[in-house]
Write a structure and sequence with these properties.
There is one protein chain. By secondary structure, the protein is an alpha/beta fold. The chain folds into two domains: 180 residues, Rossmann fold, CATH 3.40.50; 76 residues, 2-Layer Sandwich (Alpha-Beta Plaits), CATH 3.30.70.1020. The chain is built from eight helices and 13 strands. Strands 1-13-12-11-2-3-4-5-6 form a nine-stranded mixed sheet, sandwiched between helices. A four-stranded antiparallel sheet has the order 7-8-10-9, with helices on one face. Strand 3, helix 3 and strand 4 form a beta-alpha-beta unit. Helix 2 packs parallel to helix 8.
Length: 265
């Protein structure tokens, strides 16, 4: 399917806004709102993006949210958005404004994740450029700084370890990262589905979801929202995506948010 820029359909999108109802704006973080960086701990939400999101979040008809693989505590600390939905750890934990945190995995998985880490480290004792990230619900291995020649071996070791610890854990790939997660049926898509269902049940108005993402882990959300909302791939157009439209970069996402803030004043 040929993808066009989200800018090309902004008049059509504006019409959907005039139809009324609540608009749920959901964004991946790294590569979508924040530019990708070599060291993920240095990622920041640009000031312009925060201002644009805060402006929309304070309008009654908009609900803003971030859906990420980062832990819930990490993304809340980085984004610092009030009145926002946060989905962390690929759907394993999330929170809606005015409610408590929902967590779908507990501490029983931590010993298993530690054992898996030891197993992978034994397989890759001399590979430079690897960085582990322990999260409350999962374990990530970043290889953005690894040599290209080492990547096949890294992925092979990750797959073997995941198989050894199946079915308790599952492996998920992203951009220069592999992540081991509790196999409890949670994902970005299941969390978004639960949140939208909850919002629909609390409101008499219709709910229009809009989702922006750049990674393979966002594809299930694109499919989940499907024809009932708007889905936007951030980055280069690609043939294999369930997204309907695209924006070229996080900077272009900010420009689009600022435009939205102007047309809804």
């Amino acid at each position: 399917m040929f993808m066009c820029s989200f800018w090309e359909v902004r008049s059509k999108f504006a019409e959907s806004l005039r139809a009324g109802g609540r608009v749920v704006l959901l964004f991946d973080f790294d590569g979508t709102l924040a530019p990708l960086v070599i060291r993920p701990e240095r990622a920041r939400l640009p000031a312009r993006a925060r201002r644009a999101l805060e402006h929309l979040a304070h309008q009654p008809r908009f609900l803003v949210g971030i859906v990420t693989g980062r832990s819930l505590a990490d993304i809340r600390r980085r984004a610092k958005l009030g009145r926002a939905v946060y989905v962390g750890s690929h759907g394993l934990e999330y929170v809606v404004p005015g409610q408590g945190v929902v967590s779908l995995a507990d501490r029983e998985y931590r010993p298993i994740l530690r054992q898996l880490r030891e197993r992978v480290q034994q397989s890759l004792p001399k590979v430079p450029g690897l960085r582990w990230e322990a999260k409350p619900c999962s374990l990530a291995l970043h290889y953005r700084q690894a040599r290209s020649a080492d990547v096949p071996g890294i992925l092979s070791a990750a797959r073997r370890a995941a198989m050894d610890f199946s079915p308790a854990l599952r492996l998920q790939r992203g951009k220069k990262i592999v992540e081991f997660l509790p196999n409890v049926g949670a994902s970005k898509a299941t969390a978004v589905r639960a949140i939208l269902s909850q919002l629909k049940g609390k409101s008499r108005d219709s709910c229009l979801p809009v989702y922006f993402g750049d990674d393979l882990t966002d594809e299930p959300v694109f499919r989940e929202i499907g024809g009932r909302g708007w889905t936007i791939l951030v980055g280069r157009r690609r043939a294999r995506t369930a997204a309907q439209y695209y924006l070229r970069s996080p900077a272009e996402v900010v420009c689009w948010l600022e435009w939205l803030g102007e047309v809804t004043v």
